[in-house]
Design a protein that fits this description.
By secondary structure, the protein is an alpha+beta fold. The chain is built from 1 helix and 6 strands; from the N terminus they run αββββββ. It is 19% helix and 35% strand. A 6-stranded mixed sheet has the order 1-4-3-2-6-5, with no helix packed on it.
Length: 123
Amino acid sequence: MTNEIKVALAVLLSALAIFVGVRFLSGQPLFGAGYEVVAVFDDAQGLTAGSIVRLNGVRVGDVRDVRLGPNAREVYVTLSIDGGIEIPRGSTVQTSGLSALGEVNIEITPPQGAGAGRPLAAG
């Protein structure tokens, strides 16, 4: 095996290790098996990208993006939900935590009883 091939293999393996390491350390699934939904808030209360998304207290994803809507009247929050997690329609989405400590998260609460609809679709 020539030196060029050895260097090329080392570079490819390093790039793969960096990709897997970054995805693992940021809490993302390795091959993007989840989906995204957008929640609209009047006030983001200090929410930032990377914040945790919980469903009934269990981590199910993270916040991908927080941006102002038209005329700065609403805030659009893109949530990245892990694969295999189904959020029923009619669920309540709200911010939780203490903004003074920088720990604002999203809490999703499914509807009680027979009010649960079919799962949300991506988007």
